[in-house]
């Protein structure tokens, strides 16, 4: 892998590398990255991997080779501005709904905010980074009291604390560094959205690349709440002398009524009432921005900070309303249903991101994509296409023919470096072919019986990955009632880190949950000998964005189901199955309770995306295998 990455960096051919768990793929790209003669950016999807790189892998590598002649071992971590504590907000206060800077918020929020402020001041004294990940435990709401986004920021030149600013210091360090570690979202904002966030670089390595399309989509997704319009209007009232702030508040009321009159789901044709409401918000926000004073005082005092942040809120409302009102074919607009703390609101996302990724990232930079799951259906083509690379540009498919890189052709190749694990000996793939196909009503009696029997056979030691919270809770309830001697945990019983800790410490525990457990949970050893998957994880038929992408693929003459739904399912299925074998010593079963994996025409594509496990449809064989593993496991997996 290291040789292939070095060759790609030197030759200008994009590279996709599938590298299974345990291959040490981070060293496979970090070594050539340090040896490359220009700056390299490494982008990850998760904080866990970012921490692993910055706190373990890179320091060890720097210690080993950092003193060699010609090796620039400098590195830095770079995140979006809102990931750093803002010293101006901490020392000058937070704008209230009227834009007045308030020193300390009221109520139960105050205690935590004071704790975060004290932590930030200590970070200044200690020369720390002020990053959110290092802060005391907190909620999103609490963090917003000590941070700002890029629109709310006064700018280093105008801020009285610009010399100490954590975000600015991080950028300055990045400017001096050869290797920059960042996240997919910042990469997307910098390269795809065109907002300069990262110092000039030559090569980007995208780790956890199976997540990239989702993260780029998230970065380009906007939401609009009527409450956002209300808040922007209230904050503007102190700074706008005319009726423009009141007009913006009135437009927010019109928007609220228009959204509440619609059912949740995709908006293919813009209803007149909604279109008129968006235009009203857009125009009122534009007028409000124009009414802000042009000769604002130096932004170093408290009043101007409130003005800057109030104006930023109006700019956000204007930009989002303008995008939604345009209702472009390249965007998907939908009404998002309300939740416990979120009223119904509008959302808009790009129909596809491969075009912008190709034009704005892959044409200018050299990219190395790596993950344990990039080869879907036995081929790299599906994932490469989602990044904006064409099948005709695959160097290996060209039969050895040299492909010249130019503005129309972006050569790429795929490499599967395999796995250090012997999946045929270490793992069984069990497809419950005898069960009825999953229905819309959740788990049936047959599925619950199967789950209980499998968990009983392995005496706990089971990780259940379910398509919905309702299914996970139903399975947990059934196991608790019928296997009371085991500990059964369900997502929602506690925070995920606490659930993961309990699962690891008690070998006779089953943990059931949804999507957040499918990826990133690392539980090696005897505590996890069974991974249960209740159904093939196709996107929901009513998912606005996925259904729109599927329809667009069909219209373009492709197979929307295979290109969108099946590819989505294959990625998640491979990620879920990857929870089982984490070390050479691990043994176990991946049990898929969806017979379609064995019977449907798309079954072979999905199975070809999984590790090469020994496969069976015989439940008796699987229960015996699990019982043998449970009997051989130590009584305490710790």
TrEMBL record:
<dbReference type="InterPro" id="IPR006555">
    <property type="entry name" value="ATP-dep_Helicase_C"/>
</dbReference>
<keyword id="KW-0067">ATP-binding</keyword>
<dbReference type="GO" id="GO:0005524">
    <property type="term" value="F:ATP binding"/>
</dbReference>
<dbReference type="GO" id="GO:0003676">
    <property type="term" value="F:nucleic acid binding"/>
</dbReference>
<keyword id="KW-0347">Helicase</keyword>
<keyword id="KW-0378">Hydrolase</keyword>
<dbReference type="Pfam" id="PF13307">
    <property type="entry name" value="Helicase_C_2"/>
</dbReference>
<feature type="domain" description="Helicase ATP-binding">
    <location>
        <begin position="1"/>
        <end position="274"/>
    </location>
</feature>
<dbReference type="InterPro" id="IPR014013">
    <property type="entry name" value="Helic_SF1/SF2_ATP-bd_DinG/Rad3"/>
</dbReference>
<dbReference type="Pfam" id="PF00270">
    <property type="entry name" value="DEAD"/>
</dbReference>
<comment type="similarity">
    <text>Belongs to the helicase family. DinG subfamily.</text>
</comment>
<dbReference type="InterPro" id="IPR011545">
    <property type="entry name" value="DEAD/DEAH_box_helicase_dom"/>
</dbReference>
<dbReference type="GO" id="GO:0016818">
    <property type="term" value="F:hydrolase activity, acting on acid anhydrides, in phosphorus-containing anhydrides"/>
</dbReference>
<dbReference type="GO" id="GO:0043139">
    <property type="term" value="F:5'-3' DNA helicase activity"/>
</dbReference>
<dbReference type="InterPro" id="IPR045028">
    <property type="entry name" value="DinG/Rad3-like"/>
</dbReference>
<protein>
    <recommendedName>
        <fullName>ATP-dependent helicase DinG</fullName>
        <ecNumber>5.6.2.3</ecNumber>
    </recommendedName>
</protein>
<dbReference type="InterPro" id="IPR027417">
    <property type="entry name" value="P-loop_NTPase"/>
</dbReference>
<keyword id="KW-0547">Nucleotide-binding</keyword>
<dbReference type="InterPro" id="IPR014001">
    <property type="entry name" value="Helicase_ATP-bd"/>
</dbReference>
<dbReference type="GO" id="GO:0006139">
    <property type="term" value="P:nucleobase-containing compound metabolic process"/>
</dbReference>
């Amino acid at each position: 892998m290291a040789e292939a990455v070095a060759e790609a960096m030197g030759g200008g051919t994009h590279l996709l590398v599938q590298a299974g768990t345990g291959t040490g793929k981070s060293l496979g790209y970090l070594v050539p990255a340090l040896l490359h003669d220009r700056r390299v950016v490494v982008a990850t999807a998760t904080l866990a991997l970012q921490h692993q790189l910055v706190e373990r892998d890179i320091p060890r590598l720097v210690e080993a080779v950092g003193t060699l002649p010609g090796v620039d071992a400098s590195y830095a971590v770079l995140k979006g501005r809102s990931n750093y504590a803002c010293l101006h907000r901490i020392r000058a206060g937070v704008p209230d709904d009227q834009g007045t800077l308030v020193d300390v918020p009221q109520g139960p929020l105050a205690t935590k905010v004071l704790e975060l402020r004290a932590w930030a001041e200590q970070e200044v004294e200690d020369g720390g980074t002020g990053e959110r990940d290092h802060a005391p435990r907190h909620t999103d709401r609490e963090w917003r009291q000590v941070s700002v986004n890029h629109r709310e920021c006064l700018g280093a030149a105008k801020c009285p604390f610009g010399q100490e600013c954590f975000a600015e210091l991080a950028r300055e360090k990045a400017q001096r560094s050869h290797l920059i570690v960042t996240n997919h979202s910042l990469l997307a904002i910098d390269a795809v959205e065109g907002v300069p966030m990262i110092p000039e670089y030559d090569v980007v390595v995208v780790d956890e690349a199976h997540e990239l399309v989702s993260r780029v989509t998230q970065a380009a997704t906007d939401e609009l709440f009527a409450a956002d319009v209300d808040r922007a209007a209230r904050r503007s009232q102190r700074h706008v002398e005319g009726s423009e702030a009141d007009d913006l508040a009135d437009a927010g009321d019109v928007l609220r009524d228009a959204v509440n009159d619609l059912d949740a789901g995709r908006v293919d044709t813009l209803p007149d009432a909604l279109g008129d409401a968006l235009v009203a918000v857009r125009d009122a926000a534009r007028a409000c921005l124009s009414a802000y004073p042009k000769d604002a005082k130096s932004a170093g005092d408290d009043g101007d900070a409130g003005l800057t942040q109030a104006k930023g809120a109006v700019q956000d409302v204007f930009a989002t309303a303008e995008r939604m009102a345009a209702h472009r074919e390249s965007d998907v607009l939908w009404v998002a249903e309300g939740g416990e703390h979120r009223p119904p609101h509008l959302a808009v996302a790009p129909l596809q991101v491969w075009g912008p990724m190709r034009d704005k990232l892959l044409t200018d930079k050299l990219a190395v994509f790596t993950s344990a799951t990039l080869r879907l259906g036995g081929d790299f083509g599906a994932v490469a296409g989602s990044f904006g690379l064409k099948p005709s540009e695959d160097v290996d498919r060209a039969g050895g023919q040299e492909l010249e890189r130019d503005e129309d052709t972006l050569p790429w190749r795929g490499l599967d470096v395999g796995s250090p694990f012997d999946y045929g000996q270490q793992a069984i793939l069990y497809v419950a072919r005898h069960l009825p196909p999953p229905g819309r009503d959740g788990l049936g009696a047959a599925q619950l019986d199967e789950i209980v029997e499998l968990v009983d056979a392995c005496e706990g030691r089971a990780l259940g990955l379910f398509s919905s919270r309702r299914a996970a809770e139903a399975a947990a309830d059934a196991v608790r009632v019928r296997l009371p001697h085991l500990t059964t945990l369900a997502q929602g019983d506690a925070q995920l880190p606490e659930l993961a800790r309990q699962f690891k410490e008690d070998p006779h525990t089953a943990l059931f949950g949804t999507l957040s457990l499918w990826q990133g949970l690392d539980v090696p050893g005897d505590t996890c000998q069974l991974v249960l998957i209740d159904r093939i994880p196709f996107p929901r038929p009513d998912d606005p964005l996925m259904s729109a992408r599927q329809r667009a693929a069909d219209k373009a003459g492709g197979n929307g189901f295979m290109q969108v739904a099946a590819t989505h399912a294959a990625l998640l299925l491979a990620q879920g199955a990857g929870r089982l074998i984490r070390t050479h010593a691990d043994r176990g079963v991946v049990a898929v309770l969806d017979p379609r994996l064995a019977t449907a025409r798309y079954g072979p594509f999905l199975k070809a995306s999984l590790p090469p496990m020994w496969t069976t449809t015989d439940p008796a064989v699987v229960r015996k295998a699990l019982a043998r593993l449970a009997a051989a496991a130590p009584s305490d997996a710790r």
